[in-house]
Amino acid sequence: VALGGRLLLGRRFGVELALVSPTLPSELEHATGSATVWRGLATAGVCLTSDVDAPAALDVAAGGALLVTRVRGVGADGFVGRSEQLFSAGPYARVGGSLALSSRLRLRTDVASGVALPRPVVFFADERVAVWGRPWFLLSLGSEVLF
Description:
two-stranded antiparallel ribbon; 8-stranded antiparallel sheet; mainly beta
């Protein structure tokens, strides 16, 4: 689930905030145990946009992202499970576009990418089984309401 907002400070320049909440976790399985992994992120940046009053609009943005990875591990027989929250940060860039459905409602899509530093790594019994965040990608499709 993604929720974002943009405030135009001029005709084409503005600032934006976005939150991506984890909804469906990833499941990892290994001989030494299993883990459930949730990821979420928050971004803040500056944006440039084309004419928001046009039937079709394009915009780009760049800024910083905070990434949160929550891991809940369950150990197999003879192994101990562990839960952790991992925090990473890094730059991001976004390209988006929208099509007007009415004067206040638009259909919107965005593609964002960034780098997580340090990158989240999941280990099972000292063996690396999952790595995420170099780079990370996000594709979204939704609606936009103009105020």
